[in-house]
Specification:
about 130 residues, mainly alpha, 3-stranded antiparallel beta sheet, 3 strands, rod-shaped
């Protein structure tokens, strides 16, 4: 247990500044405290790690941004796909209605020809 200059128990935080990336330290728990207590938990890192970790963090952030962009694209494509599916369903229903109408017209045509032939035959046979 580490106590800061204010007499409070400290919190363990992680530094993400380029000079000390991913290095843990004790800090005063009071926000905007004037005591300014800081004590390192971890030993200093070598120069190579100070270069590698920020680069890895940038890569992670870039990949997360790309992933979020892809998720947004997928959501947009799903909305478009849903719209196209509903349009397809509407067109299929219209096509079925036109098929029914076409069938009715064929039946009317056949009935009218039958009536025509019957009338002609009956006139001719008189």
């Amino acid at each position: 247990m580490v106590v800061c200059f204010c007499g409070e128990l400290t919190l363990v935080k992680t530094s993400w500044i380029p000079l000390n990336p991913a290095r843990r330290f004790y800090a005063c728990p009071t926000k905007d405290s004037i005591c300014g207590f800081i004590r390192w938990v971890d030993p200093p890192m070598c120069a190579r790690i100070k270069i590698i970790i920020p680069g890895l963090l940038r890569n992670i952030n870039t990949l997360e941004e790309r992933c979020n962009g892809l998720v947004r694209s997928i959501n947009m494509l799903q909305k478009q796909c849903n719209g196209l599916l509903s349009r397809n369903n509407m067109l299929e229903a219209r096509c079925d209605a036109l098929k029914d109408e076409g069938f009715k017209l064929k039946m009317y045509l056949c009935a009218s020809w039958f009536m025509f032939v019957t009338v002609i035959f009956s006139i001719w046979s008189m």
